Amino acid sequence: MPSEKPETDQPMRVMLCWHMHQPEYRNLRTGTISLPWTYLHAIKDYVDMAAHIEAVPNARAVVNFAPILLEQIQFYVDQLQDFLEGRGALGDPLLAALGEAVLPVEPHAQLELVKACLRANRERMIDRFPAFARLAALADHYVEHPEGLIYASSQFLVDLLVWYNLSWLGESVRRSDPRVAELENKASNFSVHDRRVLLQLMLELMASIVPRYRALAEEGKVELTMSPYAHPIVPLLLDMESAREAMPDAPLPLHTEYPGGPERTRWHLAKGLEVFDKYFGRRPIGLWPSEGGVSQDSLGYFAEAGFRWIASGEGVLNNSHENKDLGCRHRLYRFGDADILCAFRDDGLSDLIGFNYSDWHGEDAVANLVGHMENIAELCRDHKDCMISIILDGENAWEYYPENGYYFLGHLYEALAEHPRLSLTTMQDFLDECEPQPTHEAHLTAGSWVYGSFSTWIGSAEKNHGWDLLVEAKRCFDQQVASGALGPEEVAVAEQQLAICEGSDWFWWFGDYNPADSVSLFDQLYRLQLANLYHALRVEPPGNLAEIISRGGGKPSRGGVMRHHDEHHH
Prior knowledge:
The protein is built from 23 helices and 10 strands. The protein has a domain at about 75-215. By secondary structure, it is of the alpha/beta class. Helix 3 (about 65-85) packs across helix 13. It has helices at about 5-10, 35-55, 65-85, 95-100, 105-115, 120-125, 130-145, 155-165, 170-175, 180-185, 190-220, 235-240, 260-280, 295-305, 315-320, 345-355, 360-380, 405-420, 425-435, 460-485, 490-500, 505-510, 515-535, and strands at about 10-20, 60-65, 220-225, 285, 310, 335, 340-345, 385-395, 420-425, 440. It starts with a helix and ends in a 34-residue tail after the last helix. The strands form 3 sheets. Strands 1, 2, 3, 8 and 9 form a 5-stranded parallel beta sheet that branches. The protein has a 3-stranded parallel beta sheet with strand order 4-5-7, with helices on one face. The chain has a two-stranded parallel sheet with strand order 6-10.
């Protein structure tokens, strides 16, 4: 009897895919930035994630960038460069406070600054540094008793700002750059010069991100992929009714037809490709549709834009199987006659990294994860057609890990790079080396990586109201453009602003299960972006933009920035 042995002689392929994304925090009309997450994740996670791959010779990964994130990083680089050369001002209030010699004296502005400098993981990022922990304890007191701020010295604010930004530096930087050690050792009484040294370092880090990933891509260690330009949920732009494929009873917005959805979908894909090519000098073959949001209809648009593969969540695959017992989640799939390959994230393994391992010892966590992969490789005999896909946010998990995930990620790449039966790969290499045969299914059930549905973005009163406001604005956009009231440059500005409003993040945050302070910031920012769209269209904004959409009030895991694939809404 012929043995099946040769088939499993080749190792099981493993694809690590890290998604980097922040919504548009800039007010394009005023140049101000409402939240600092883009620059903070840039100096911490985007540089660390590159450093880990650079450090291990056989490391491989897929790294996905939302194009609107690349533009925001560049915006910071340009502003910081100008500022440090004596031109212009910084649009980010937190960076401006760090950079400007004179700090705000107005009590409300001081309080906002103090609150902003506490937005970090207390255990891993604040308490790790005794000097920062002492300042944070004082800051807590001022937040509870703001009237006491009149006794706070400007040196207190300076030291708090410096420590906050220091705590957000990537571990790879902390361990290698003497400037960081010098500032940490000084610990207090930071001068204007110290602050400029820190700003200079932050500028260098932000400016290094695109070149580093570009170099890793040229070496073949990283496959760079993208999401649609401003991170819209494409299936909902194409047809909001698609939400009912996974949630048959969901209430939907008043208008389930987004005006001109197909054109907008093409616009986000084309604009995304243009931005991606500008920064990385190449066209990606892979697309992580925003939030893994897919539908049968959307696949045709992704293929038409030239993508060879996309990925989504395991829940979508489970919903799409005609026969519930069949189908391996580690294979590639084709659906209907769409000419594009679909990979599905191993939800269990991806969530272990996102939510479970942060409290483990790094080596134990890696041993546990690799053990799971070895079991899959053992059970899954068909290594030519199968690959383990771990896909998750590349930035939000690490602040819950000791040292920004330094030990866990370092061990992970080393363990997989040397493993005899597991082999790190990119999708491009997997397709070239293994020529896997996809499984065919008749129809892809619309959904996302969270619960396999769109419930995070549509189907509740608050989220639906957000869509109604957007549809109303889009109709106004169409009327104004058709009327010829705007010149070509004005149309381009309005189109850019519309794209921002179409992003997924606004809808993500609406809902009573999210923390109130985050919800209120995103709620306000969404209404501001919509008001800016009317402004760009030269139309008076409707009065309902003055009304709060959502108040929040929940206490979700990870502060709401990440979700378990199956965590149920309470």
